Amino acid sequence: MTLLEKNMAHELHPETWVDQYADYLFNYAVARVSDSEIAKDLVQETFFAGLNSAKNYKGDAAERTWLIAILKRKVIDHYRKINSKKGKAEVRINYSSDTDSEGDWLEEQVADPFSKDGDNTLENEELGLAIQECISKLPKKQSLVFNMKTIQGMSTEDICNELGINPSNLWVMIHRARTALMGCLNQNWF
Amino acid sequence: MKISCEEASNICTRSQYKEASFWEIQKLRLHIFMCKACAKFTKQNTALTSLCNRAGLNTLSESDKEAMKKDLEKHL
Lengths: 190, 76
Hints:
The structure holds 2 protein chains of 2 kinds. Chain A has helices spanning 3-9, 17-33, 36-52, 63-85, 121-136, 140-151, 156-163, 167-189. The longest helix of chain A is centred in the middle third of the chain and has 23 residues, at 63-85. Chain A is an all-alpha fold. Chain B is mainly α. In chain B, 76% of the residues lie in helices and 0% in strands. Chain B is built from 4 helices and no strands. The longest helix of chain B has 20 residues, at 36-55. At the A-B interface, helix 2, helix 3, helix 5, helix 6 and helix 8 of A face helix 1, helix 3 and helix 4 of B.
């Protein structure tokens, strides 16, 4: 590590947080609170908390790791809050919170070991974060176009209108983004 | 029917979003049959599509991000 990098490691760059980490943190939060509005608020709160405690940042963890640690606390706080709001500080051990399925056998509630999506959720979340990390390394314009096209599923025409580019520009950017992502994900996921 | 590698990769990327025509895909298939490099590229590109689908990615909209940036700047 050069002296310059050492100095950089101790500094935070809050002005780049939204572009670099918002989607990463958002994915992490959505997987835990499964409500995108709440997840968005948690990300916002994380950034504020990060700013407020910036002077405590020692630089021994990467910026992103540090922000994730704050977000984890925010997720826990969120669950504490909704529990106390309803006056239910104690943990509910009903096997089902859904009144419709009251009386159903416990066996029916257990995850199906042969189900393909059930046991892969953890791996899929990891995959999602890995992709998000790679996307954040792309040039801004490329990541923007890739997000709109791939994640939001917007039509080529809509994206072109919104960004004021023509379709061949769009495909060049998508192409570059995808090629970079393939390289970035290559070691671990292909 | 012959196309360049550049055109092949272009069709390949568009086909990931189902925006390549039937004839384009036939041309791509023929090209892949003869070109190892493009065959590999197509395979990886398709794998990337399925990885993205499997991961169930979420993203904040640009307007949400702009709003966040503004709020953050106030606190800087």
